[in-house]
Amino acid sequence: MVGIVRKPDTRRKLEILSADSQYDLACACGTGKDEHRRRGSDGRWIYPVTLPSGGASVLFKTLLSNVCSNDCAYCPLREQQDVPRCSLSPEETTRVFLDYFRQRKVFGLFLSSGVPGSPDAAMDRLLATARLLRRKHAFRGYIHLKVIPGASAAAVEEAVSLASAVSLNIETPGAERLRAVSAKKDFLRDIAEPMKLISRLTARGGRYHRVKQTTQFIVGAARESDSEIVRYMSALYDRLKLHRVYFSAYQTGLGDEAPDTASEGPADPFMREHRLYQADFLMRKYGFAGDDIGFEADGNLSPDRDPKQVWADRHPEAFPVNANRASKRDLLRVPGLGPIAVDRLLQRRAESRLTGIQDIGRPGVLLCKAAGYLTF
What we know:
- It is built from twelve helices and twelve strands.
- The protein is an alpha/beta fold.
- The strands form three sheets. The protein has an eight-stranded mixed beta sheet.
- The N and C termini lie far apart (70 Å).
């Protein structure tokens, strides 16, 4: 049985749909306190985003509908679940968002939806909202649209034309893993091909090159290993040139029982998610390749050591690194040194010879850790 909410007003719909936004944990884990999602004073989820100027603000995020015809085993909103269902109209969503925006509570909008019927039916509602904002209200700000798996090429292209960023969740690393959690979705047809289309539309030099493409893995719902996820993540960055990859730790407490396919992973699912974000950061910011990421015997990242420390422990021949002569790439391999510290080191050694760790900065925990891997 499905619980349909009879004639709820907009406020009640937002209460339901904001609560259901908790199941999409993109941005739940980040590298700093300002990168985590948080609940606003009125109970709605707001999400962080980095501004082009380098600052940060927040997004208003809502589902347009929690009605869904899909059968994803990890999702508490799947068709078989008995939960209160409702939908927002494009006009309601536009009105509420613009009220937030005009009060300067949010920087932009993150629109997602369940699948009430066909993928293109869901896309019609998403696109209608974006059209209202762009064309009727002349909104020129940030809009992130979630592309529904299985959407037509025409719907995908219109989404790219209206959005500042688009995402289509890859969900699992490959077709076999997806079949373990959904009998309705086809990995190549519904996910891989639309992602390739988005990549072509947003390619450098193209009409929509300013639009960012992202995706998300559901971690732990299909017995996949971290090594499988990292292999796919590497291909997404190398071949499709994605802007970001996100991870959402599957939590058994959010729906009913865990699907039979759920991984027997770490006791804390967020630690696995956190390690994947660290591996992602190494690949995006430190120049690591997918093959540089080390795994335990079970194919998962170490719960006790971060991926950079694992690499250093497995490559003692790479150390010590000469702080006065090493390349930026080699310095970024040093545990305790991040991009900001390395840039500062390079600037200071251009001015004078470095004689010790104190010449890089105030010796805190990370710099003291780095000192063991450096020579001057």
